Every structure is written in C-alpha cells, then in structure tokens.
Model the fold of this input.
Amino acid sequence: MKVRQSVIALVTAGLAAGCSSAMPAQTQAQPQTRPQTQTQVQTHAQAPAGNDTPAPQPTESNPPGDIPDDTMFVAYRHPGQPYEVKVPEGWARTDLPTGASFTDKLNSIRIETRPAASPPTEASVRSQVHTGDIRTVDTVARNGGKAVRIVYRADSSPDPVTGKVVKDEVERYAFYRSGREAVLTLSGPVGADNVDPWRTVSDSFHWTAS
Done:
C-alpha cells in the first residue's frame, strides 16, 4: 500500500513538473504586435502610387520688347510720297508731314522723307547721330535697294504715364532716289530679339512711281 502511494506521488510530481516547464515555451511562441500610430497610418495613406505624371509647364511669354513671331504686317503708304513700307498690324500710328510713326509698347517704327542733293554716305549718316554709343555703320542691300545703316543705342523718350526711360537699340536706314532721301528708323529695348521683324520691315521698303 505504501509502495502504491509512493508511485502515485512520483507520477503526480512528474506531471506537475512537465506542465510547469511547458508553460514558458507556449508564452514565447506568441510575440506581441505593436499597433500602428495615427501618424504611421496617415503616412502610408498619403504615399503616392507612382510619380509618372510630369509637372505642368509654365506658359511662355515674350520678354519685354520682343515682337511676337505671329505678327502680321500690312503695307503703309503716305499720300503724295513715293514709297511703301510694311509695318506690324495694329500698331498705333501718328501721322507726320512726310511719313508716320508706329508704336506698340516699347517698340517704334518711323518713316520720313526729305530732299537730298546727293546720296547718303556712311560718314554723313554718322554725323547725324549725336551719341557716343554707335555700334555699326555700313552699307547694306535690301529688297528696295542699297541703304546706309547705322546701329546705335540711346535713351528712349520718357513714358507718358510713369516717366520711365529705357535704353533703346536703334537701327536707322537711309534710302535714296532722285534727289530724295527716305529715313527708316526702328527702335526697341536693348536685348529684345527683333532681328527678324526689323529685317521684314527694312526689306519691305521700296520706292513707288508716285
């Protein structure tokens, strides 16, 4: 009887020891998971799926003084004067005794004629420009004939509203025929890219029959 009780006690003690040793292993097999914070959830929600869409490009605009490439040109004739020249359509016109001036923003075109006993020379044209900032004086061929060209820089007339004065680059062409000289003056701010429009205007000048 005592032997049987001793055996039962040993078996019970062994089962108890086995259960106590198995408990920590079961606890270690269940790792704890930290819940996401609100900041982490918002960060994941805001992450873009992709960045393939290009950013919109800003609208291009012409720098001050640049004449737009799509400008249309129309012919101008002064009553009683034997010449014709093309000018940008829509520019404001001021009539002069033997010609006209055309302006738009910072650019201007002026055409006039005067009697001349002889054709202009580079020296005579240079003497008519009273500025020390002369860039070029040469003789060029245009569709309407040869002309003496002078390029120089000078202050513009003050703006009638703001009084602002800008530095202009001026191209002046002197054409001649039969005792009459036509002076074509093109001006715009220094740095403006008006090479093509000015060439269109100067190439368009020609003498007419009457």
